[in-house]
Amino acid sequence: MRKCVELVQRAMWCTSPNPMVGCVTVKDGKIVGQGFHPKAGQPHAEVFALRDAGELAENVTAYVSLEPCNHYGRTPPCTEALINVKVKRVVVGMVDPNPIVSSSSISHLKDAGIDVIVGVEEDLCKKMNDGFIHQMWSISVNGCFLDKMGERALDTGGHYSKLLQKYDAIILSSSLADELSSISSQEETDVSIQPIQIIVASNAHQSPILASSNTDPKVILFTKKELDAYSETSYGGVEIVVLEDINLDSILDYCYDRGLCSVLLDLRGDIKDLEVLFRDGFEQRLLQKIVVEVLPEWCARDER
Predict the structure, then answer these.
(1) Domain boundaries, the chain
(2) Per-residue pLDDT tens over the stretch 198-212
């Protein structure tokens, strides 16, 4: 199972909205096939592992980090692939929390006469797909909260930009958007997997992002006030979403509808734009992880 997790890392953060999955097939104590899911729309890990095993696939034990799918989507169900080649046993790292699957595959495999074992290295497998929403802030070495990234953010060896590649979207205040683009452009990052920027501004007219010509990666602006001079749905490449009330539930519902599975709430910048989201995250227990970045800065005692 640890080999499955190792394979998963070859497609780290590239499979969204699908989960990251690795699979290994074993026969007579030896690995005869292995595979991982590289990207949404492409074959799943089990299919690649069975192809790799070839004629040896019959009667293998298949180790898979996540319960195999049991439904038709962009690809056929993996349960059928496992049944058709007559695997002997399937060892599952974790049950798929998706209600479309959620143990139905296990039952289907058992009904087909296949031995199924569940929960091997479960905690390790769960860590591979641990979104949905994480929260982040930065502090100085002497414990002050930092509203901006600052020049010293570059001294962290590109940590922030690498962190962003783990997420489908990042929620941040409008005051931080330009600074994020500036720092990301100075670091060596894969722009193809940079997250969508979700900008929160109570008044869209005052948001500097509308005056920016740089909308790569994609930018979505959430605002409370109607726009008089601009289209209500887009302006200058920026998608605009007007809400009666900006709250974390509304933003997460939007992310869910768009297939965005992991979100980082960055609390730097103008906290007035984000204080409601900050409160919602804690009061509604919506956060799975808190990321605290300690930057090599020393702040005055009167700073927060």
Answers:
(1) 1-128, 131-294
(2) 988 766 555 555 555
**Can you read off the two tokens belonging to residue 274?**
């984000």
**Helix spans in 199-291 (H):** 248-257, 271-283
1-128 has which CATH code? Answer: 3.40.140.10
Supply the residues annotated as catalytic.
46
pLDDT at 62: 98
Own/partner contacts of 126-129, CB < 8 Å, gap of 24 or more, are 126/94, 128/5, 128/8, 128/19, 128/20, 128/65, 129/19, 129/20, 129/66
- Asked whether 194 and 169 are in contact (CB, 8 A), the reply is no
Share of the chain above pLDDT 90, in %: 32
Three-state secondary-structure class, residue 226:
coil
What is the largest distance, in Å, between two alpha-carbon atoms of the chain? Answer: 70
Taking a C-beta distance cutoff of 8 angstroms, is the pair 205, 225 a contact? yes
Whole-structure pTM value? 0.69
Mean pLDDT of 85-102: 91
Could you tell me the fold of the domain covering 131-294? Dihydrofolate Reductase, subunit A (3.40.430)
The CA distance from 300 to 47, in Å, is 58
Q: What angle do CA 228, 234, 240 make, to 5 degrees?
A: 80
**Six-digit token pair at 53?**
């095993």
Task: Report the pLDDT averaged over residues 157-177.
Answer: 76
SS (H, E, C) 79-118: HHHHHHCCCCEEEEEECCCCCCCCCHHHHHHHHCCCEEEE
| Residue appearing with tokens 């799943």 | 44
User: Does residue 304 carry a pLDDT above 70?
Assistant: no
